[in-house]
Amino acid sequence: MHAYVVFAHPTRRSFTGAVLDALCRGIEEAGHTFEIGDLYAMGFNSDLSLAEYERETNVHGNRAHSPLPADVRAEHEKISRADGLAFVFPVWWSDCPAKMKGWFDRVWVCGYAYDYGLPNETFPYPPLSVARALVLCPGGNTGDALHQSGVAEGMRRIFANDRLQPGVGVDQCEFVLLPGTEDPQRAAQSRTRNLATARRAGRDFLTAEAGRGSG
Ligand SMILES: Cc1cc2nc3c(=O)[nH]c(=O)nc-3n(C[C@H](O)[C@H](O)[C@H](O)COP(=O)(O)O)c2cc1C
Ligand 1: distance of its center to the CA of 109 in Å? Predict the structure, then answer.
């Protein structure tokens, strides 16, 4: 099986980059293949343009026949080759980095990740359909702090119940927070534990039984 792994961090020489490496190692250990979409290295444009906004909102009434940008089509093609989608990015101000958010704004287009079910609106490409998604998300604060503030649960809900849910074409999603990367007391232990979690998640990702539910 094959995974498309979306990575959103300015450098692979970061703890988030080490999480990416551990995940990919686990995927390989389980006998699967992967492709990495490094959004910063690709120079992925995360700003929804005026033309894209007008297409989404059907300002000109021909949304289904307005061409999609080449970089968005390229992402759809990478996803179509994958059995699973993985995302690796840090917690930045209690959310994903803006580049990651913009990827969803631009790639999850109407007719692909959602539609209005209009009888005379048929899109010339297949909708998103992927069996599983995995989100690995290092956070600087401790797990206790991220849970007490509600940030951990908020982020999990946004990913598992909205951006990566069955309604958009993702059968199941596991959201894994990897906290404590900047914990002054225990950063080293947290990082070691988080890398082991990422590697194990990579091993299980494509072989895990369907219907395990969101994490
Ligand atoms: C701009 C920025 C905002 C951040 N915001 C948060 C935050 O809201 N909560 C949190 O737990 N950690 C936050 N962090 C810490 C990162 O999550 C932490 O740096 C990351 O988990 C691992 O570091 P690295 O991959 O950049 O080496 C922030 C870091 C940066 C650079």
Answer: 29
Interatomic CA distance for residues 87 and 110, integer angstroms: 21
Burial zone of 116 (CB within 10 Å; 0-12 exposed, 13-18 middle, 19+ buried): exposed
The rounded distance, in Å, linking the Cα atoms of 88 and 80 is 19
DSSP category for residue 97: -
**pLDDT given at position 83:** 97
Please return the burial class of 201, using the count of CB atoms within 10 Å of its CB with bins 0-12, 13-18 and 19+: buried
Which protein residues touch ligand 1 with a CB less than 6 Å away? 9, 14-16, 90-94, 138-141, 146, 181-182
User: What gap in Å lies between CA 55 and CA 22, rounded to an integer?
Assistant: 39
63-94 tens-digit pLDDT: 999 999 999 999 999 999 999 999 999 999 99
Q: Name beta bridge partners: 86.
A: 5, 134
Q: Where are the domains of the chain?
A: 2-205
Task: Give dist(CA 21, CA 12) in Å, integer.
Answer: 9
Q: How far is the CA of 157 from the centre of ligand 1 (A)?
A: 19
CATH superfamily name and code, 2-205: Flavodoxin domain (3.40.50.360)
Q: Is 167 helix (H, G, I), strand (E, B) or coil?
A: helix
Q: Is the pLDDT at 213 greater than 60, yes or no?
A: no
Q: In 3-state terms, what secondary structure has residue 177? A: strand
Length of the chain: 215
